[in-house]
Design goal:
Shape: elongated
Largest sheet: none
Structural class: mainly alpha
Number of strands: 0
Radius of gyration: 15 Å
Order of helices and strands: HHHH
Distance between the termini: 30 Å
Number of domains: 1
Length: 106
């Protein structure tokens, strides 16, 4: 989680990117990892479910950084991408929690 934050938070300083949205996505990423691990404390297995796991998130941020590095100007498209990453991260948290609790109940 710390490495994700150290890698992705500097994007909040890129002109044209919404800094609050970058921070929200990074915070949601931390929640997804915590949701996966907290299942262990309840007696379930480590959860890896959801539409935006660590490798998916790394790919998305890597592609975003590549496009910016190639000179593609941030703007509406980058805001939509970050909002989508936030939504997918929150869906991942919900799925991991739900499936972890379902496993504990069984």
């Amino acid at each position: 989680m710390a490495s994700d934050a150290l890698l992705y938070l500097p994007l909040a300083r890129v002109a044209g990117l919404e800094p609050h949205l970058v921070v929200a996505v990074v915070a949601a990423a931390a929640l997804t990892e915590l949701a996966g691990v907290v299942a262990l404390t309840l007696g379930a297995s480590r959860r890896y479910d959801g539409p935006l796991g660590k490798s998916d998130r790394a790919f998305a941020f890597g592609l975003l950084a590549l496009l910016l590095g190639l000179g593609v100007e941030p703007g509406g498209w980058s805001t939509v991408v970050l909002a989508l990453l936030l939504a997918l991260s929150l869906a991942t948290v919900a799925q991991r929690v739900a499936r972890g609790l379902a496993e504990v109940e069984r």
